[in-house]
Design a protein that fits this description.
The protein is an alpha+beta fold and 524 residues long. It folds into 3 domains: 244 residues, BirA Bifunctional Protein, domain 2; 113 residues, Anticodon-binding domain (Rossmann fold); 68 residues, 2-Layer Sandwich (Translation Initiation Factor IF3). Helices cover 40% and strands 24% of the residues. The protein has 16 helices and 23 strands. A 7-stranded mixed beta sheet has the order 3-7-8-14-11-10-9, with helices on both faces. The chain has a 5-stranded mixed beta sheet with strand order 16-15-17-18-19, sandwiched between helices. Strands 20-21-23-22 form a 4-stranded mixed beta sheet. A hairpin with a 2-residue loop joins strand 5 and strand 6. Helix 2 packs parallel to helix 12 and helix 4 runs antiparallel to helix 8. The longest helix has 27 residues. It starts with a helix and ends with a strand. The structure holds ligand 86X. The site of ligand 86X has 17 residues, from helix 6, strand 11 and strand 14.
Length: 524
C-alpha cells in the first residue's frame, strides 16, 4: 500500500515537471489554484463530503458518514456489513483495553464452537422461547441433510454451559470465569442499521460460575462499571447505569444491569448488559459441585456482553456536519500533519516536507499520519481528514517555517493555535486530553439537558413527544409498563441503582404507590 502510494506520487511529480517546463509559471499557478478550489468545492457539496445536516436528517447523515469515512461497506446479505480497517482499529482499541481489564479481574479467554446442536440450544426453554425466529440454522452440507440441524450461535450460554457441567465437580473448581471474543448471528427483522443493529456482530461474552451468590453479584457490578468506563473513558460517551425492569431483562436472568445511552436523534440504546443468572442455568444444565461438607450445590452464574454496536453509538453521539469526530483514546490516527505546499515553489516545498517528516518522527509516541500527497490541495486534505474525524491537525507552511512554528487545529471545536516548534509534544498531549474531556463534557451536558423529571402522565407524554428521556416515579408493575409502551412508544431504559428519595403515587396514574425512579425513552 505504502510503496504503491510513493510510486504514484513520484510519477505525478515527474509529469508535473515536464508540464512546468512548457508552461509559463504564472499561468500554471492560476490553474492549480482553480483546480484546488474546484476539488474543495466538490468535496464540500457532492460525493466526498456529507450532503445533509445531522439535525435535519439524522438517518441519512449516519448512512453517508459511515460509508464516506470508510468505516463500513454494505454486503450482499441484508443486515451484514464489512467492517473496514479504520473502524476495525477502533474495535481493537476497545478490545485492547477491555481484555487487559478483565484479565486483571482474573477472567481468562477461551473459544467455543460456532455451531450449536438443536437439542442443546433448546435445553433452557425459557431463554430460547422469545428468540426462536432469530435463530439461523445450518441444515446440510453439500447435498446431504444433517440428522440434527445446527444453530449458528446467537449467544453462547448453551454451548458453554454444556462444557461447564463437565468441568465443575468440586468447590475447588470454582470460580470458573471465561470470556470469548467472537461473532454472533441473530436474524433480526427490524430494519438493520450498520453497527447499531446488524444480523452478525462482534462482541465479547463473559460467562462465569461461582460457589457463592455474593461473589457472583459483586462481579455483575464490577463488569457494569467496566462497561461504563469503556463508554465514558474511551468513547467519551456518558451512560445511564441501572437495573432493567423485569419486563426488559434477559428472560434467563434473575436480573439484568445495563448501561444505556441517549443519542442525538432522541432515541436511547442499550450499550452493554451484565446479567445475574442465579441458578437458572445451573439447574437446567446440572452445573453443580460438592461443597466443603461434601454436599451438592448448584453454582451461581453471570453472563455479560458488549459489542461493535458501541462504535455506532460513538459515531452518532460525537459526529457533526463535517463527519466523524473521534475521541483521542480510540482514534486510529491522533494527529494528521498537512504540509502547505505550492506547486511553483519546489525548493520551499522540499524544506517544508523535510520539517514535516522531522515533526512526525518527533511525535513517535502518537499515532501520526503525514499527508504528503502532491496532487491534492491543502483544503481538500482538511476536508478529507475532518470527514475521518482525526482529533488534531498540524499544519506547516512557508509562513510557519519562517516563524519556526506550526498551527494546530482541533477537530472538535475548529480552534486554531500557533505552536513554537519546541513545544509541539507538550501542546499535543494537552490538546488531545482537552479534546477527550470536551467531547465527554459536551455529551454529558446534552444528556443532562435531555432528561426531564416528570410527575404526571401529561408531563410524561410531552417529554416523550419531544424526544426526551423521562425520569419518572413509577409503581414498578408490568401492567403500567406495557400500557405506557402501547400508548406512547416509550420503553423503560433502566432503574438507577442509587435512587433519589421517592414518595407519592405512580406518575402514570394507576393509583399504586410510586416504587422506583426509572428512565423511559423511545429506543432502538
Ligand atoms: C440474550 C444474553 C447474554 C451473553 C448477554 O446479553 C450478554 C452475553 N448472553 C443474551 N439473548 C439470547 O439469549 C438469545 C438467544 C437466542 Cl436463541 C437468540 F436467537 C437470540 C438471543 N438474543 C439475546
Amino acid at each position: 500500500m505504502k510503496a504503491r502510494k510513493t510510486k504514484k506520487k513520484t510519477m505525478k511529480r515527474k509529469k508535473k515537471k515536464t508540464i512546468t517546463k512548457k508552461t509559463k509559471k504564472k499561468e500554471k499557478t492560476i490553474i492549480r489554484v482553480a483546480e484546488a478550489k474546484k476539488i474543495d468545492k466538490d468535496n464540500n457539496k457532492s460525493e466526498l463530503g456529507i450532503t445533509v445536516e445531522k439535525n435535519k436528517d439524522f438517518s441519512e447523515w449516519y448512512t453517508q458518514l459511515i460509508q464516506k469515512a470508510e468505516l463500513i461497506e454494505y454486503s450482499p446479505v441484508s443486515g451484514c456489513m464489512v467492517i473496514r480497517p479504520y473502524a476495525y482499529s477502533i474495535w481493537e482499541a476497545i478490545q485492547d483495553f477491555m481484555d487487559k481489564e478483565i484479565k486483571k479481574m482474573g477472567i481468562q479467554n477461551a473459544y467455543f464452537p460456532l455451531f450449536i446442536p438443536e437439542n442443546l440450544l433448546k435445553k433452557e426453554q425459557e431463554h430460547v422461547e422469545g428468540f426462536k425466529p432469530e435463530v439461523a440454522w445450518v441444515t446440510e452440507h453439500g447435498t446431504t441433510k444433517f440428522e440434527e440441524k445446527l444453530a449458528i450461535r446467537p449467544t453462547s450460554e448453551t454451548i458453554m454451559y454444556d462444557s461447564y457441567k463437565k468441568w465443575i465437580r468440586s468447590y475447588k473448581d470454582l470460580p470458573l470465569r471465561l470470556n470469548q471474543w467472537c461473532n454472533v448471528v441473530r436474524w433480526e427483522f427490524k430494519h438493520p442499521v450498520p453497527f447499531l443493529r446488524t444480523r452478525e456482530f462482534l462482541w465479547q461474552e463473559g460467562h462465569t460460575a461461582f460457589a457463592k451468590r455474593e461473589e457472583a453479584e459483586k462481579e455483575v457490578l464490577d463488569i457494569l462499571n467496566l462497561y461504563a468506563r469503556v463508554f465514558e473513558e474511551l468513547y467519551a460517551v456518558p451512560v445511564l447505569k441501572g437495573r432493567k425492569t423485569d419486563a426488559e431483562k434477559f428472560a434467563g436472568a434473575v436480573y439484568t444491569d445495563s448501561v444505556e445511552i441517549y443519542m442525538p436523534n432522541g432515541k436511547a440504546i442499550q450499550g452493554g448488559t451484565s446479567h445475574f443468572l442465579g441458578q437458572n442455568f445451573s439447574k437446567a444444565f446440572d452445573i453443580s459441585f460438592l461443597d466443603k461438607k461434601g454436599k451438592k450445590q448448584y453454582v451461581y452464574q453471570n453472563s455479560w456482553g458488549l459489542s461493535t454496536r458501541t462504535i455506532g453509538i460513538m459515531i452518532a453521539v460525537h459526529g457533526d456536519n463535517k463527519g466523524l469526530v473521534l475521541p483521542p483514546r480510540i482514534a486510529p490516527i491522533h494527529i494528521v500533519i498537512i504540509p502547505i505546499l505550492f506547486s511553483n515553489k519546489p525548493t520551499l516545498n522540499e524544506k517544508i516536507l523535510k520539517v514535516a517528516a522531522e515533526i512526525k518522527k518527533e511525535l513517535k509516541n502518537f499515532k501520526v499520519e503525514l499527508d504528503e500527497r502532491g496532487d491534492y490541495s491543502p483544503g481538500f486534505k482538511f476536508n478529507y481528514w475532518e470527514l475521518r474525524g482525526v482529533p488534531l491537525r498540524l499544519e506547516i507552511g512557508p509562513r510557519d517555517l519562517e516563524k519556526q512554528q506550526v498551527v494546530f487545529v482541533r477537530r472538535d471545536t475548529g480552534v486554531k493555535e500557533a505552536v513554537p516548534l519546541g513545544q509541539i509534544i507538550v501542546r499535543a498531549i494537552k490538546i488531545l486530553g482537552d479534546i477527550q474531556d470536551n467531547l465527554y463534557n459536551k455529551a454529558k451536558k446534552f444528556l443532562n439537558e435531555s432528561i426531564e423529571k416528570v410527575k404526571s402522565m401529561s408531563e410524561f407524554r410531552k417529554a416523550i413527544k419531544n424526544g426526551k428521556i423521562a425520569f419518572a416515579p413509577w409503581c414498578n408493575c408490568k401492567e403500567c409498563e406495557a400500557d405506557i409502551k402501547d400508548k406512547t412508544g416509550a420503553k423503560t431504559l433502566n432503574i438507577p441503582l442509587k435512587q433519589p428519595p421517592i414518595k407519592g403515587k405512580c406518575f402514570w396514574g394507576c393509583s399504586k404507590k410510586a416504587d422506583k425512579w426509572v428512565y423511559f425513552a423511545r429506543s432502538y
